[in-house]
Amino acid sequence: MTLYNGENVEYIVPYLSLFMEDIRPVLEKQRDEVITTPIVDYNIKAPRESPWWAAFVPYLVMFGLIIVLWYFMMRQAGGGNKAMSFGKARTRFQPDHQKRITFADVAGADEEKEELSEIVDFLKDPHKYAELGARIPKGVLLVGPPGTGKTYMARAVAGEAGVPFLSISGSDFVEMYVGVGASRVRDLFEQAKRHQPAIVFIDEIDAVGRQRGAGLGGGHDEREQTLNQLLVEMDG
After folding, report:
1. Is the domain of 127 the same as that of 216?
2. Which of 34, 86, 99, 173 might form a disulfide with 181, Cβ 3.0–4.6 angstroms?
3. By residue range, what is the domain housing residue 111?
4. What mean pLDDT comes out for the span 209-230?
5. Which pairs count as long-range contacts for 105-113, CB under 8 Å and 24+ apart, including other chains?
6. Per-residue pLDDT at 82
7. Which of 35-39, 122-126, 209-213 has the highest mean pLDDT?
8. If you compute the radius of gyration of the chain from its CA atoms, what whole number of angstroms results?
């Protein structure tokens, strides 16, 4: 608005009706009385519109925050290529041509060696057992306190049979992200199929092994999904 002294006064109001209500008493007073700085004229202008791209700024900021959060999640997951190796099993692979550990390197445990010798014989000559209609056991559970040589015995079985040895810890299957454990189980057995015949050794399997259906989350529990996927792969 323009005053009699030529001064221009400009301010922004939230609503046009509010401006008219505020200025009406001033205009009536100007009409009835002589004031020192009366209002000569006023003009109402529409507010300056923001550029078209300004509406996308909040979405771009939100998208950037999601990317940063995902990046830090991948860094915590570990591995070389974070985005591609997130669902991959962290398997330690020992080819069959490396230095082998045999039963001769294992001191004692004669009963365990005798029990596992059948599996060694099957891996060496599977056709003999196939003709008889026999099938190799789906798995062998080695039970004992830490330091009793369970991992060493499993390596000895692979060394005696001359097959690759894939080992992984049971805690590698359990993550804070649901579905990662089952994905790593699938990847572990896919690696074993590429090198078959092979032995897969899961150390500290009690990290995921327990009674089925005992989880608080029901079928959506991470350990429950990992255990179910492990049983499916062993049955296949």
Report:
1. yes
2. 173
3. 86-235
4. 66
5. 105/152, 105/156, 105/159, 106/149, 106/152, 106/153, 106/156, 109/149, 109/153, 112/142, 112/153, 113/153, 113/156
6. 47
7. 122-126
8. 37
